[in-house]
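Per reviewer request, we include the raw input and output of the structure prediction for the construct analysed in the revised manuscript.
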Amino acid sequence: MRRKLTDNQVVELRQRAKEGTLLRVLAKEFKVAFSTVVKAVNGTTYKRAGGPIMPVDRRLTPTEVSGIRNAVAAGDFSVTNIAKDFNVSRQTVYQILNRETHKTVV
């Protein structure tokens, strides 16, 4: 099986993901599938490449939760696009909007 990314690219992906670059943006930039980036960044693949590995269980910060609520309130983005931008499921976005999760975040 041919590798889609070099070890240097994986290190760069991991570093940029740690710095907050959206995984969807990285996938587009490196011309690979979103799932390829997710697996590389969380260490499922490219285990020996090096660079910081993001945990699989990603938690949203209060700032991100507020950003999700504000984006929906502004009406500029669909729930699907917001979910993609924040690397969460649509269900997570709806739970945030319905205050089923992150109840204390304004």
